[in-house]
Amino acid sequence: MVDLLKKFVTSVAKESRIILRDRQAMILFFVMPVLFVLILSLALRDAFGDRPGATFPMLVVDQDGGEVGKTVVSAFASNPHFRVDRAGHPAPDQTALERSILDGRYRFVVIVPSGATGQAKRRVEEIASNIPPDLLKDPAVQVRMLADPTLRTDYRSIVGTALAGILRGEEMRLSGAQIRKNLRAMGYALELPADLTRSRIFAEVLDEPLQGGRLHAIPSAVQQNAPAWTLLAMFFLTVPLSVSFIKEREQGSLSRLQTMSVPGWVVLGGKTTPYFVINQIQMVSILLVSVYVLPLLGGDRLDPGHAPLALALLGAAASLAAIGFGIAVAMYSRTAEQAASFSSATVMIMAAMGGILVPKAVMPPLMQHLATLSPLAWGLDGFLDVFVRGGGVPEVLPEALGLLAFSLLCHGVAILRYHNRL
Amino acid sequence: MNNTPCPVSGRFDPAAPPAIEAENLCKTFKGAPRAALDSVTLKIPRGVIFGMLGPNGAGKTTLLSILCGLLKPSSGRVRVDGKDITAQASSVKRLLGVVPQEPAIYPTLTARENLEYFGRMQGITGERLQARVRECLRLGELKEVENQRVEHFSGGFKRRLNLVIGLIHEPQILILDEPTVAIDPHSRFFIHQRLRELHAKGVSIVMSTHQMDEAEQLCHHIAIINQGKIVTQGTLEALLESQRSGSIQVQMEQPPPPSFQGVLQRIPGVLEAYLDERCFLVTTDDPAQTAAAVLDAVKLTGIPLVSLNFGTASLEQVFLSLTEHPLEQ
Asked: pTM for the full model?
């Protein structure tokens, strides 16, 4: 047994030396995935939902300067999802406002027209005096909203609804004041509060996202990208692994080893162990960059959760699954080209299906169910258990076991093929 | 260049079990129209250089792959030094050194790293490993390039390294698959010399080749394989003796038309006729009378004669007569 272990260590050392001498592969293994996570997490920062601290830059052009303008400014300013600037005097013209959106300084511009408060009060007074709508002197006050054309329609709609809500509140406040004024004029000495909207009739809606409910767990960009690209990088290692295996077969060195007293597990293990180590380094480096480097570049910091063991378990299981897949591809491919094209195409399909390229949370229900067929989806769900849902080892165990079962299956068919070739 | 076959090694012992013994080996690959090996029975004595001759596709590589444990036969058995290759695979493998046709080495490792790796995989460690690596580098005359990556080596250097890797564990039996195919004459001579040295030390050598001169120079025992069957085997002398019919070799100034082969075969007394570009060879029981008729046939073509030789059968003629197959170049 000691002799076999020595052979195993020798095999691992040989393979590591070969890998380390391939500089291009080193860049592909380590630099590319980290760069992808950095770039995509920064680029898609606002495209993912529920991002704590996410802010939309907004400009409020308060040409009114009265109560309506102030109410709009203060309502948006009190919402943590907006960073509100107020346009100075003189107010920028339409072209300047459009440019401020197109050059990316603001995602929204809200324009409260000059004299909005006075116009609103006059209109309320006329309405309260029972003047028919078509005879009202003042038209409805027109508040305008310009929006970034690249912004998702649902975001624009939400902001539009929020603005309409603010204006309805203002309508109610002005209507209350007018009613109070009319009652006084009619001799009623009712003690109505100065502002009817001061006390809420309906409490704030209680937002209670379910814990552990998969369909509701929408990750932030970094929560999605860090594990997704870790898994993709791990599975993409099947390409160099299978190619290297076939090259060794074509060069005849694999056959030469088969003529020696070297068991198959030493050959296979010696070849795959360095790739397992590379996978773990990939995972740790992507996590470290997501936790420490991404915030320095303006991205969100990844909260790594409180279950390092769960992460280690997932990392090991995903790596074994990827390696098993790579070995199986190598065993059933005739040429290195065939192995490279088959493994890269299959990994991309598994990634697309498994929510790596497009988050599972935004997929329609049918695709979410189909995603469960992809081992990459199992891995991603496991990581999201830790990063988004605060899970630990018990929560990631089903996904880890799934990956290990996939690995066993792949290794099994590969070993079967290895012996059948003899 | 030495043109005589190696003498049988001083350690040759006819009473000892054969180095390798194969009985009724059959191998059929899935989907193949015919068996790659068909009831091959072979006895390779100890301490000899055993040449396995055959045209491409004859089954040489399949047979060697089975003899070194790389392939399982469909039926039949192989014994190496009296041990069953399947039941006692581990101890058999220690006796064998295998040198594949194409250099089976790691291109991004150095010559020394390749030797150390395969040495360790053969179970050699420590000072013995270092001594063996030094010896193999000396044998392969690779000392000066020991720390260079193999990917920068010439084809000849790769062959040398390929050879000495097969020797790292001092095998008793060395199996080589076409060790000198497609290499320059210097490297070929170098490999021949090393094989002679190994043979002199008592190593049994089994090599496949389709180069007749190589087999005649190196091998004491020969087996000719064709279409998966052993058509003859024995010592070189015995084979030549068995085919000692006369031969006439003729070289002409230009290639005759292809129909000339038919003309030759119709000459009374001609046993076989082989045409190859400007040369042809006929075998006959009556060289004197046949030669006159052959010369007449040449004259009729109008192509000037360059040379005419009489002789006894060469290994090439034996091969041709037994395989009825043109030789590879």
From this structure: 0.70
